[in-house]
Automatic annotation (TrEMBL):
Entries under SUPFAM superfamilies matching the protein: HAD-like
Gene3D superfamilies: HAD superfamily/HAD-like
Name assigned to this protein: Haloacid dehalogenase-like hydrolase
InterPro entries reported in the protein's UniProt record: HAD-like_sf, HAD_sf, Tad3
Pfam families: Tad3 (PF25185)
Organism: Lachnospira hominis
Length: 339
């Protein structure tokens, strides 16, 4: 990859704008530029400060660890390439608090105006419901961030905005853009561990994907974000379960190459407590799953906890445990009402 030349402003950019004084440092940007230099990029200070003020700025940056490759002048290799010096500082990237995007310099389309109006209406709606918890301000910031992303897509001015949206959705969801293939270079992202003779290795391209190697050499894969449990008694209640992961891996085993969907498997379950010695719940019913493509698949499997593990039981035992749990619940309610 070619290295970049970065021209960066000082007041309002590398530091808070307190001109002619020097404001508080923007350490996030300073650290970013220092890392860029470590990767081979070159950084030019590009400022309107006079000679003495510029020296103070250079010294101030040096104290923070940022040493410039040039100050208000082109790099020697650029002068050589252009056959002479130029008044404009050449750079691949310009960082300045007064930057104006190309998007803002073109005539807005009806789609641009519609999106801006929708965001403003949404922000007004947030503010009208403000109860003093600060959520309206946070909500408006989220809407405006979405508008920036929308504007960026519109600025590209190509007809593939729908395709771009799908690509962006995959990136936001943490899903790879191309199928994952089982090659040695994609495993062990710092998440390798062994248990009961089985080695599990994390995928570098997708942190939720693991490869499991048993002692006999057999291999399986597990994506811990693939399944979402949904309570059949309250569909707003969703959660994750290792038991459900295992069932999905049995029913829909992951094979390579693997191209995960942006939609999960929604697994509809019920859990309750049969024995009060077992904590929150000790009995689970797994009724059906809605696959990422919208297909409903019956499961009807039932489990009870024994020795800190879930063992499969039949529906008759499940129903008996459920009835006993409901009777216990009623008795507790009546006892509480009588006290």
């Amino acid at each position: 990859m070619e290295n970049n030349i970065i021209a960066v402003d000082f007041d309002g950019t590398l530091c808070e704008n307190k001109y002619p004084e020097i404001g508080e440092p923007n350490m996030e940007l300073i650290d970013f530029l220092m890392n860029c230099q470590l990767n081979g990029d070159k950084v030019i200070l590009w400022t309107c400060r006079n000679e003495e003020q510029t020296k103070a700025a250079v010294n101030w940056c040096s104290e923070k660890g940022l040493v410039f490759d040039a100050v208000n002048e082109n790099l020697p290799e650029i002068i050589t390439e252009f056959g002479g010096d130029t008044r404009k500082i050449f750079a691949n990237i310009y960082i300045d608090d007064r930057n104006v995007s190309l998007y803002s310099c073109r005539e807005k389309t009806s789609m641009d105006l519609w999106a801006e109006n929708e965001v403003e209406l949404a922000c007004e709606h947030e503010k009208s419901g403000d109860d003093g918890d600060g959520f309206s301000e946070y909500g408006c910031a989220c809407y405006r961030s979405a508008l920036k992303a929308f504007n960026s897509l519109m600025e590209d001015r190509h007809s593939g905005i729908g395709i771009t949206k799908n690509i962006l959705n995959r990136l936001i969801a943490g899903k790879p853009l191309t199928p994952i293939v089982d090659t040695d270079d994609i495993w062990d992202a710092g998440g390798s561990f062994e248990k009961n003779g089985e080695k599990s290795i994390q995928c570098k391209r997708m942190s939720s994907l693991f490869k499991h190697i048993k002692e006999d050499g057999s291999i399986s894969y597990n994506d811990v974000t693939r399944a979402v449990c949904v309570s059949i008694n309250n569909q707003n209640n969703t959660y994750h379960s290792g038991l459900i992961d295992r069932i999905m891996d049995e029913m829909f085993p992951i094979t390579m190459p693997y191209m995960p969907s942006t939609k999960p498997f929604y697994v509809y379950c019920e859990d309750f407590l049969y024995d009060t010695e077992n904590g929150d719940f000790d009995t689970v019913g797994v009724f059906y799953v809605i696959t990422p493509n919208g297909e409903k698949v019956k499961i009807n499997r039932f489990f009870a906890e024994k020795d800190n593990k879930f063992e499969e039981i039949d529906i008759f035992k499940y129903d008996a445990r459920k009835e006993a749990a409901e009777q216990l619940k009623k008795a507790n309610v009546q006892r509480g009402a009588g006290e």
